[in-house]
Amino acid sequence: MRSSEEICSGPYVRRYSTEEGVDGLAGSEGTFLICSFWLVSALALAGRVEEAERNLEQLRALQNDVGLFSEEYDPSGRRLLGNFPQAFSHIGLLHSIFTISEAKSER
Question: Is residue 22 assigned to a domain?
Answer without folding.
Answer: no
